[in-house]
Amino acid sequence: MMSAVRIAVTVAGLLALWQALVWFSDLPPYILPPPSLVLTRLASDLALVARHAGITLIEIVLGLSLGTALGASAALAISATPALRRWLFPVLVIAPSIPFFALAPLLVLWLGYGLASKVAMAAIIIFFPVTAAFLDGLRRTDPSWLRLARVMTDGSSKPRADWAELRHVRLPAALPALGSGLRVAAAVAPIGAVVGEWVGSSAGLGYLMLHANGRMQIDLLFAALLTLSVIGVTLFFVVDRGLRAAMPWQADSLPEERT
Amino acid sequence: MSDRPPLIPAEPPRDAGPDAPGVRLRGARLAYGGRALFDGLDLDLVGGQITGLLGPSGVGKSSLLRMIARLEPDGAAEVRTDDDAALTGQIALMEQSDQLLPWLSVLDNVLLGARLRGERPDRARAQALLDRVGLGDRATDRPASLSGGMRQRAALARTLMEDRPIVLMDEPFSSLDALTRLRLQELAAELLAGRTVLVVTHDPMEALRLAHRVFIMRGSPARLALAAEPPGLPPRRADDADLARQYGELLRRLEASA
């Protein structure tokens, strides 16, 4: 309950800061609209914003699912195959420095103006952080756990022992690392979807923002931006809470505040 | 205060194998980066007895223990039982880090071996062993909620659950405070009686309390020397005058090797 109060205070603080900026900068509303105007616009055009937000949300969720599934599978395959590891590990190391957003126009060309190109954009930028984080977790199993597992499975066939070790020791041990990857993924997925929409689309919050910008409807642009921020923050919280519930053994490094 | 030792029943442990085989390690060799940690090392573990292994850190005690379990891929040695059989599936391992998996309950940690081998878990026996080590009421808790001493008790229950004739212990109680360590030594000696045990330790008192024979490992490449054969059955009393004398002697020998 305390955290709900803190969130409310933070939001109110940010709105106040925004309003103060409008007052002191004396900028006209078509450059920097006050929060009241944006909220009024959001209320009057709620159906419009909601329709576009729904499409963006679908793109984000599909991209997140696809990118996570592909990233996790790639990490498992790489960790299980030494040859794959030798060839792909350097690729994973340099991958973050490749500007994948530059692919957006190509994706629109190849996959069209619809959902597919946006889902692909989000999935591609999610793929690498998820793969890298999960692979790191799979490689860093406590060696004393592996010694224990090896002694316990002594006498079983090697494939059987390897599978048991992966399923019961290395995989669960790597879940917290996969969780860190998923938190990063949840944070960047909305960016992927919106960039995809900016490059070419006929729906979604990114489209609505460009459209409003072109017509000097800055209050509508801000309303779309605000909605996108709410989606992003909510998504992050849902993923974070879900991961915490799924891994109760993974205690916070900072002690919980006593109230 | 929850770390009190359990009441130890008068009857001997039900699964102690009186006919546990001895272990014969011959020509053990392990080199890291061209430097031989040890070469041509022989060690015999007498069946049904506890062997203590002392030595300065870095001398290769843990590596030697792992050679017996074939956990050193770079090492070479002939390891057989004293009736010349393979050691496959005969060893249980316990280390200084309790090796408890944090996502499993204490009971499921005790059942880990069965889980890994795809066997039917014997929950009743696991619970009975937890009762024996004084953790009967903590079976559903996660390891993180246990104290260091309780965690090593859980590790001991897991080791006993494996029910292997040969038990390798690598500094099993080194991370515990003195009093907890004394209690766990007693518990371990009681519950491991009849098995062939190797205890690697840096604590001469631990070796003297637990072992039938104590070896010192030293030098580079390392050699082994029989250093003590304390009389009487383990666990020996820490305040025994004879033990105190042997303790002083072992310390002198270790100092000379450091």
Q: Could you characterize what this model shows?
A:
- The complex is a heterodimer of chains A (259) and B (258).
- Chain A is mainly α and 259 residues long.
- Helices cover 80% and strands 0% of the residues of chain A.
- In chain A, helix 3 (46-80) packs antiparallel against helix 8 and helix 8 runs parallel beside helix 9 (205-214).
- The longest helix of chain A has 42 residues, at 158-199.
- Chain A is elongated, with a radius of gyration of 23 Å.
- Mean pLDDT of chain A is 90; it is low at 253-259.
- In chain B, 48% of the residues are buried.
- Chain B is built from 8 helices and 9 strands.
- Chain B is globular, with a radius of gyration of 18 Å.
- Mean pLDDT of chain B is 88; it is low at 4-14.
- Chain B has a 6-stranded mixed beta sheet with strand order 5-6-7-3-8-9, with helices on both faces. A 3-stranded antiparallel beta sheet of chain B has the order 2-1-4, with helices on one face.
- With 258 residues, chain B is an alpha/beta fold.
- The chains are: A mainly alpha (259), B alpha/beta (258).
- Chain A binds chain B through residues 142, 144-145, 147-156, 160-161, 164-165, 168-169, 172-173, 175, 247-251, and chain B through 66, 69-71, 88-89, 91-93, 95, 97, 99, 101-103, 112-113, 115-118, 142, 144, 162.
Short description:
By secondary structure, chain A is mainly α. Chain A contains ten helices and no strands.
Helix coverage percent of residues of chain B? 25-40%
Report low-confidence residues of chain B grouped into runs of 5 or more: 4-14
Topology of chain A as a string of helices (H) and strands (E): HHHHHHHHHH
Tertiary shape of chain B:
globular
**Average pLDDT number of chain A:** 90
SSE layout and pairing:
The complex is a heterodimer of chains A (259) and B (258).
Chain A: H1 2-25, H2 35-44, H3 46-80, H4 82-94, H5 104-111, H6 115-139, H7 143-152, H8 158-199, H9 205-214, H10 218-246
Chain B: E1 23-32, E2 35-45, E3 50-54, H1 61-68, E4 76-81, E5 91-95, H2 106-110, H3 112-117, H4 123-132, H5 148-162, E6 166-170, H6 178-192, E7 196-200, H7 204-210, E8 213-218, E9 223-228, H8 241-257
Parallel strand pairs in B: 3-7, 3-8, 5-6, 6-7
Antiparallel strand pairs in B: 1-2, 1-4, 8-9
Helix pairs in contact in B: 4-5, 5-6, 7-8
